[in-house]
Structure formats: C-alpha cells, structure tokens
C-alpha cells in the first residue's frame, strides 16, 4: 500500500508535542513509583523523532501507519537486576491501562537467542484529571536489565541501522554476545541469591530493606559503616521472627507513616545536627519507637550514645526519656 | 493531648525577654521584639524538638478556665480563628502578662511564642525559656522593627545556653474555647513537680482537664485490669500489684506512667501496659496523684483462687511472710509463714 508520507509527516509534526508530553508524563509517573518502592533504575522517556517515524512507516508496510505505529511515545525502564523487571511490571499494571503486553523472556523458543525485554503499550487512565487529553494516545514502555539494554543498543547499531546487511561473522559475534549477556544476568541473580542466603545475612538484608525505603524518602549520601554499627545494636531489639518478617513490617510502617516521614526528611534536609537522620537506620529507630520504645531504650543505652536516641525521639514525637 | 507531636511544624517564632519582677517594682521592663524572628531550618527544628520533647515527657492535658482573668485564652482563640490581633501584638501582650504574673522568685527568661501546625491542626505554642547567665538577648534593628537576628537566635538556642522550662500548646479543633486541645508541662519542676501555679493558672489561664483524684482512680483500675488480664504468671502478678500499691502509697505527688512501667515491669510487658493506658485514655506522661478515691484499696492485696480460697496480705508481707510460687502444672503455691493469731468464721 502506498503511504501518503506528506500527510503523515504533517499530522505527526502537529501532534508530536502531545506525544512528548505523554512520554514525560508516563516517565514521571514510573520514576516516582519506582522511587517510592525504593527500586534503583533508570527511567527515560522520548517521543519518536519525525524521521524515525516516517522511516518506520515506510519500512513496515503498515495498512494504517498512524494507527499501527504504537511507539510514537516511548519510555525505557532499565533495572539493575533481572528480578526487578517483574517488580516494574507490577508497578506498570498498577499505574496505567495496559493495551498490550509482551514478555519476550517467555515468548521465544528455548533454542533461540533473542532480546529478552518486556514491552507494554499503555495509556494514562482517563479518569485522572492530570492526564486529560492523553487518554487516547498510547505509549510504549520497555523494561529490561542493563545487560539487555546493552544488547538492545548494540544490536540496533550493528544489525539494523547500517545501510547494508552485516557480514555473517558480525551477526554471529553479536549473537554470541547475546548469550553472554543472558549468562551475565543469570549469574548476577544467582550470586545475589547466594549472598542473601548466607548465615548472618539478616542484618545486611535489613539494611538493604532500610536503604530501599530511605532512598524513596530522602536522596542523601549515607555512611555504610555507621549503618552496620547502629544496626548491629538495633537488631538486638528484634526477635528471630521479627527479623524474618522485617521486610513486611517496615513496608507497612513506611506506608502508614509516609506523610510524616516525608515531612521530617524535608524539614531536616538542611539540618545536620543529628547524623542518624541522614542514615537509613533512622527508619528502624522510628519503627521501634512506635513498636517498643522500652526495649529500644534499654538496648540503645548499653551500646550507643543516649543523646542521639533522645534527639530522634523528639523528632518522632515519642519520648524515651523517663 | 492525643495528637502526634512528631507531625509538629513551626511556622513563625517571636522571642521577648521577660526580666525579674521584684515585688518592690524596682526591676527592668520586658524587652519586646517588634517583628518575628527570621528562621533557619536548624532553629525551626530546634523549637519543634523542644516542644515535642517537653510535652511528650511530661504533659498535662489542660483546658481554658472560663473564670480566668488571664488574656491568654482570648489571645489564643483569636489567633486560631479571627486573627483580629496580629501575631506580634498577641505575643507582646502575652509577654507583658507573663511579666505581671511572675513575681517573687520566678526566674527571668525568654518568652517564645510560635505558630505551629500539627498535621492538619493549627496551633499556638508558648515556651518559657531560661538562658544561661551572661547570655544577653540582643535585639537587632531591621527596617520592620527590632528583633533577634537569625545568628543570635541560633547562638542562644543551639549552643545549649538556653533551656526550655515551661511549655503550653493549644491546637484548634473547632471555633470556640471548648474545642481547643491544650497541653502544658513544666520541666523545671522535675519528676515530682506539677505545672507551676503561676504558669498554668495565672499566666495560661488554664486548669487541668481532669481532676487528679479521678485520673488516679482510673490509673489504679486500668493497671489492676492489666495485671489481672494480661499478666499470666502469678508471681509477676503479685510483684506488679505490690508495685502499684507502693507507687500510690509513696510520697511522690506525681505519677509518671512511663517511669512506673519502666521501673516496675519486665521489659516485655512495658509496651503492652502503655497500650492499655492508651486505651483507657490515661495521660502517658504523668498526672498529679490524689488517692482520695482509691485509698481503701491501697492497704492490702487480696489473692482470690478458683477453689474459693482467698488470701489477704499487706504489700510489705509479699515476699516475706507470704511467698508465691508458680508450679509447673499452672497452679500457684502460696506459703504463709507467721504466727497464727486467731481464726473466725465468715460467710
């Protein structure tokens, strides 16, 4: 079918600003939601440039290019770990209306090497007044790991973009790299699981949980040695069952006190009198102040400077000084 | 006050110096700021922590006294509703009134008035601070009038040269005096103290929300309920009951609920006890003790058993003439070692 390129160009030129706004809106929402969950990932949005749009319309031979090109607005979410791809998937389903979903990890044959990302086509829920006018437009969201992202970028440069077909040995070497990247993600995940299963890893896992929530509330550099020192003492306020359930306990605590925590971290952003307010373990102190200030005070007084706890308790509004 | 003081945020602050007021009248006049103090994050947070910390440790729930001659209730209500008087003028009138009230040996100090928010409630906090000797208050001239500079305020507050002694906090929950949620404390009085009469009644124009004899009775009942319903080991029950009677029979004229839990209960029972106090809407910080309504219950401890056997003993006998032991089968052994004086029949 012959494409009326000029009318396509004019229409996309006219509507592209709306797609720029849509990409920014979707990226902003994903960025805020990942931050809230403490997921470390890169989120970038863009509207396809006019030349790419027209080239795609020509190359793909669509029956209706305007309707069939769904990535006029696109957002890329790049995670550190493979397991985080699943977390972002859940989050996208919560945030948007999903029109199409494709998980390449599950759709390709086991004996085939290919890109393994997850793709969505979404629109912003129409009931949301902040997104009025964007409801009918689609935005593509790609979710993949850094390794998969590397593959996507390199393969695009070497296999698809060149004006001529690459030689067979180049294609072969790219596919070898693809296998390597899949192995890379798998080994990173396996190593991470093994470390997390080591005996005595509970405290480190608690710190990881605390960091996730802390970074979602306050973007500040922290001192990991201080965290380990304080956490070593604070862990004594928790029984074995409480440590095992701590991820859930802390998530519920942060959710129930989100507004208060946000106020505190905003108010103390330029106030460095108490060093623990810049540390993720202050969340554990606040949680313990709510749950059992007596045990906290007892453990603290034996191992840490009492003045620091008194100051944190004044900030949190739960006294420990009797 | 049931509000979460961790949500307290200080919006505006003004500081006035209130000197000694000798009965002879030969004393300096208050030094009044003419504009509010500019605030840094540190100073704003300092006041937030001092208000929350002081009230969290030793607050009394208070209400405005309709018969008071103090202008404070009127000024606070106006600030929280109509705002016909400016923040500065309101605070100046408060400072002049404090000067009139604190005669005799009340130390000189700084009256600090803050407009605050606690979550979605507006409020006014009034602090009396005492600065270390030699730390002079210096008002700086600004185009709008005299006030404490940010640096001077910081030096006074953050270098531990100033201590907060008395605090009143009033939060708006409605449009009239009755709907204002009030709390006051006086850290200068220490563990056994109460809020100084001149500060609570003459200056703030307040009275305690609940009479001490009623609070004491509710504390006694709630604590007994906790001991009987939440504590399973009989030895512990007896130990806690003895502690309750000792607390109420003691000479201190104030009960600090947290300190009572901390000093007498096993660490694993303390928070559960505080939760019970919370449910009973008892002040977690403390209250003035008046055992008038529970005096008859404070002399002896009665142990009642499933079989109908009852043992009556004075608290001082427990652990001495009366020994209580938990048995592995869940039963309790009570041993009385004493000289039998007489036996009487009873229905």
Structure, explained:
The complex is a heterodimer of chains A (322) and B (347). Chain A contains 15 helices and five strands. With 322 residues, chain A is α+β, with helices and mostly antiparallel strands. Chain A has a five-stranded mixed β-sheet with strand order 1-2-5-4-3. The model of chain A has no long low-confidence stretch (mean pLDDT 86). Chain B is of the alpha+beta class and 347 residues long. Chain B has two domains: 5-208, no CATH class; 213-336, no CATH class. Helix content of chain B is 33%, strand content 25%. Chain B has a seven-stranded antiparallel β-sheet, with helices on both faces. Chain B has a two-stranded antiparallel sheet with strand order 5-6. In chain B, helix 2 runs antiparallel to helix 3 and helix 6 crosses helix 9 (267-279). The longest helix of chain B has 19 residues, at 212-230. In chain B, 40% of the residues are buried. The model of chain B has no long low-confidence stretch (mean pLDDT 85). Chains A and B meet through helix 12, helix 14 and helix 15 of A and helix 1, helix 8 and helix 9 of B.
List keywords for this structure.
heterodimer; A: 322 residues; alpha+beta; Beta Polymerase, domain 2; five-stranded mixed beta sheet; 15 helices; B: 347 residues; 2 domains; seven-stranded antiparallel beta sheet; 9 helices; 33% helix; elongated
